[in-house]
């Protein structure tokens, strides 16, 4: 009876933490509910409609990169935040559509909560209707950068690419963006809390 009670208590604790364990994989499927953040009310993500491999989870991950490094696997649509002892937090992502892919190394130069979005001039040329935002689109639930943004710089300065949130949860696992790496808003909030300014970012 004591063993049975201990198992029940452990299972309840995991449930309350929003984390479930399957083998060596720890899923955070319960962490996609509505969130009140900085005066904004993020809606619940219907996570049951998102393929399970794109749910936030802690996985075994073999890399020589040090903890705190961010590795983006554009082919498999995963972003890894490297943890100690051979593990990483894995997030599902959306990536650049054909013609907008990129790869290389950068670092997180800036972090912004509820950022302003300013479309680059090249994007305005492709989509003239965005000219109204040439001086910036105010933060909010419809802002393309979502709840958080990490700004990536390289040796040449601002790369123009971001790791950012998106209200378009259905785009995760797909190639739809103009090159930036997008995460579900609840995931970018989690990544933002972990990643430090100066963190190395590798895009494969």
UniProtKB/TrEMBL annotation:
Q: Which domain of life is it from?
A: Bacteria
InterPro entries attached to this UniProt entry: LD-transpeptidase, LD_TPept_cat_dom, Transpep_catalytic_dom
The record's family statement is:
Belongs to the YkuD family.
Keyword match Mitochondrion: no
Q: Report what the protein is called.
A: L,D-TPase catalytic domain-containing protein
Q: Which residues form the active site?
A: 164 (proton donor/acceptor), 180 (nucleophile)
- Please provide, alphabetically and separated by semicolons, the GO molecular function terms listed in this UniProt record: glycosyltransferase activity; peptidoglycan L,D-transpeptidase activity
Which PROSITE patterns does the record cross-reference, listed alphabetically? LD_TPASE, PROKAR_LIPOPROTEIN
């Amino acid at each position: 009876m004591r063993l049975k009670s201990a198992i029940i208590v452990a299972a309840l604790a995991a449930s309350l933490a929003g984390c479930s364990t399957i083998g060596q994989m720890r899923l955070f499927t319960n962490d996609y509910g509505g969130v009140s953040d900085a005066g904004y009310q993020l809606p619940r993500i219907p996570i049951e409609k998102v393929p399970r491999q794109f749910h936030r989870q802690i996985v075994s991950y073999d890399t020589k990169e040090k903890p705190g490094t961010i590795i983006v696997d554009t082919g498999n649509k995963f972003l890894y935040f490297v943890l100690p002892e051979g593990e990483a937090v894995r997030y599902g992502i959306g990536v650049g559509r054909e013609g907008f892919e990129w790869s290389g190394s950068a670092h997180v130069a800036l972090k912004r909560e509820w950022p302003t979005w300013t479309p680059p001039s090249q994007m305005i040329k492709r989509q003239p209707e965005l000219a109204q935002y040439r001086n910036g689109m105010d933060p909010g639930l419809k802002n393309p950068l979502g709840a958080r943004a990490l700004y990536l710089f390289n040796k040449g300065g601002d790369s123009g690419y971001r790791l950012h949130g998106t209200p378009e949860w259905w785009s995760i696992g797909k190639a739809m963006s103009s090159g930036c790496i997008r995460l579900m808003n609840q995931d970018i909030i989690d990544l933002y809390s972990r990643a430090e300014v100066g963190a190395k970012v590798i895009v494969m």
